[in-house]
Amino acid sequence: MNKLRRILGILWIVIGLAGGYYLIINQAIPKFYSDKSEDLIPAIIYAFILTPIIVGGLLIFGKYALQGEYDQ
Amino acid sequence: MTNNNEKKGLVSIIAASSLGTLIEWYDFYIFGSLATIISTKFFPSTNPTAALLSTLATFAAGFVVRPFGALFFGRLGDLIGRKYTFLVTLVIMGLSTFLIGCVPAYETIGFLAPVLVLLLRLLQGLALGGEYGGAATYVAEHSPVNQRGFYTSWIQTTATLGLFISLFVIILTKSSMDDTAFNNWGWRIPFWISIIMVAISVLIRMKMQESPVFAKAKAEGKTSTNPLKESFGNKFNFKFVLLALFGATMGQGVVWYTGQFYALSFIQNTLSIDISQASKIMMWGLGLGTPFFLMFGALSDKIGRKWIMLLGMLIAIFSYRPIYSAMYDAANLKDKQENVSLQKIESTEVPDATKSGQSLKTTVTTKVFTDGTKLKETKKETTFTDVSKVVPPTDVKTTKAVEVNSNSFWLLVLLVFIQVIFVTMVYGPIAAFLVEMFPVKIRYTSMSLPYHIGNGIFGGLLPAIATFLALRATQANDAAAKAGTKLPYDKPFLEGLWYPIIIAAICFVIGALYIHGKGKRED
């Protein structure tokens, strides 16, 4: 089971990167370039709050999992 | 005798803590529950969907600052104590809510109106970020270790009861005046009421004692001097903060918001059900489901917290699409037959005082269906004295309000209730679960952050992201219909559910694999 916990660390890193890509490319950038002024706040939230938490958090979590920090 | 006194003391601690937290949630939800009206008052837009999205963005902004409130007040709570910290958060919340009810509309003070509302909303988010961790920690630190799940589950009921009461106050206010008065100024009353409730709660909380566990740690000089550094700069603690977030609170947040907010938004906007009836459906669902917080909290003391929470997530993942599909069918007018003889059309035309030769024409069409369902369509358009002028299609606004029959009403109540059960499974035991993950000296800070990121950010953004996904699917279908090609989405209104389903699924796997789930912290 510990082996699986460690291997899946890679998956969490990939999910973090994929989530970041989706948020930046599909959500933040189109809203930054949108003509609507009300799109600016969501764009900022996606780019500067949600993306760093998801990408940064899952990268560190994945790294810890790979290193066996969560072994039981 | 001592045992009885201890129990009485514990009951009053739970009551005082829960009352304050309940009021904070009430304050926070009033804004969300009145989102549609607030969007027209403070956010200028010709497109109702854009107005709604902008309000939801403000809603999300309120949630996004919650983690910052968790850090700021969590640090204070671990440094100076739980009691004073969550007293301050209550006062900030109460004043902000009251002041939102006092801000003049965009028509009166222009751009300053949305700016002020946004600032006050941010203050609400900050206060809420500090409140929950304090209340949960305070109650847990007073409770016997083997009953923490049950006692902290009272705090867990407050989030749902806060929504329940906010809907109740809105219904009561609406029923005491006509629609025009409510839309003009009546919507402010629920905000003003908050100040009275907060004053009472502050008086009660001021009489409370500091948490005995924290007081002991402080007396022994065992409190942290830098809770932020110890929580997030220390790898041993930080890995548990991440595990709490990705293995528990992230999934809990989306299940919670789907059951409470997305359900309401779906009933009001997708099903176009009248706001009063939508509120009643939610109130029944929430009211019937609330006791289950206590049940699952108590059960978690017996069989452990982990699998109750994860099972709630798992069932939610597989049942959301069938549940929302059934909700849609319950109010789908296409399957109903109209009783044409009962159709009523009323039309009024008022001259526009600002523009000569123009009038505002309002046409209200009431349709009654054979099963008792009613539809009220209100069409507003500008008409011209000069008949050669044509009304641009963008200037015609049509709103729909459906009133479903009794069978559909109770079916919708049942479907909301089922979602609230999922909420109670994931949310009932989570306060005790988080408290037991971290030591006393950094508990307030460490448990508050993952809770508010999970709920505030992953959960708080759910309405905006789910609305976006559903809108995109609808637009793709419209484009395909125009082009005469096959529609890409069978049920576009269900597409928004992919967000909570995916987040909950990731959280379930992480929680199942990495959370230990055995043993309880004794401090």
UniProtKB/TrEMBL annotation, chain A:
Pfam families: DUF6814. The chain crosses the membrane at residues 7-24, 44-66. It comes from the Bacteria. Keywords: Membrane, Transmembrane, Transmembrane helix. This is Uncharacterized protein.
UniProtKB/TrEMBL annotation, chain B:
GO terms for cellular component: plasma membrane. Coiled coil: none annotated. Keywords: Cell membrane, Membrane, Transmembrane, Transmembrane helix, Transport. InterPro entries: MFS_dom, MFS_sugar_transport-like, MFS_trans_sf, Sugar_transporter_CS. GO terms for molecular function: transmembrane transporter activity. Residues 13-523 form the Major facilitator superfamily (MFS) profile domain. SUPFAM superfamilies: MFS general substrate transporter. Signal peptide: none annotated. It is found in: Cell membrane. The chain crosses the membrane at residues 12-38, 50-73, 85-106, 112-130, 151-173, 185-204, 240-261, 281-300, 307-324, 409-435, 456-476, 496-515. It is a multi-pass membrane protein. It comes from the Bacteria. This is MFS transporter. It comes from Segetibacter aerophilus.
